[in-house]
Amino acid sequence: MFKTLIDRSLAALGLIILSPLLLALAWLVSVRMGMPVLFRQTRIGRGEKPFTFLKFRTMTDARDSRGMRLSDKQRLTALGLLLRSTSLDELPQLWNVLKGDMSLVGPRPLLPEYLARYSMHQRRRHEVKPGITGWAQINGRNALSWEEKFDHDVWYVEHQSLWLDTKILWQTVLKVFKREGVSQQGHATMPEFLGNPTQSRLDE
């Protein structure tokens, strides 16, 4: 309850202070990519409950001659690349924090279809609210493999504290300025998580 109070208070303060920047970014996205300016997607939160996740749009809806959507890397715009590299595309998630769907710090929320692909150990990442940033984000971000990310997520679940959250938030600021680990080579962010090929998905 104390963490939720801090999260919502800081999220509300952040939305007020950053409102000019948020409006400017929304205008830029609308001019460069059209409407809508926000990307909405169902993600999984605490207790494996779905919620609507928000980001600024960074990709077009470009398709090939057959009507198939192009790859993420092909649809990512120059503005989108800038927003991702600076993490400015994540700012609308302050609204998710204010609503109580997310925390400032926690495992990043992922897609519903990944649920069936986790090991029991990896599913523990849903014991806490997902976050805008987290332990995996300051220890490699998208340069990590999926397995390494999930190990960091579970480590955070087992060691979470106010002091650790403060450390993660501070180191996140440093990582954003350095623009480290934004994407894996050959991908706009990360390849799809397809499961654990060398492990049982039932239990480890």
Structure write-up:
With 204 residues, the protein is mainly alpha-helical. The chain starts with a helix and ends in a 26-residue tail after the last helix. The chain contains eight helices and four strands. It is globular. A hairpin with a 5-residue loop joins strand 1 and strand 2. The strands form two sheets. A two-stranded antiparallel sheet has the order 1-2.
Strand order of the largest sheet: 1-2
Percent of residues in beta strands: 5-15%
Largest sheet: 2 strands, antiparallel
Strand count: 4
Structural class, please? mainly alpha
* Mean pLDDT score: 87
Q: Which radius of gyration do the C-alpha atoms yield? A: 17 Å
Order of helices and strands: HHEEHHHEHEHH
> What is the subunit arrangement here?
single chain
Shape verdict: globular
- Contiguous helical run count: 8
Span between N and C termini? 32 Å
Low-confidence stretches: 200-204
The percent of residues in helical segments reads 40-55%
Summed up, what is this model?
The chain has 204 residues and is mainly α. It has helices spanning 2-17, 19-33, 72-75, 78-85, 93-99, 120-123, 146-159, 162-178, and strands spanning 38-44, 50-56, 103-105, 131-133.
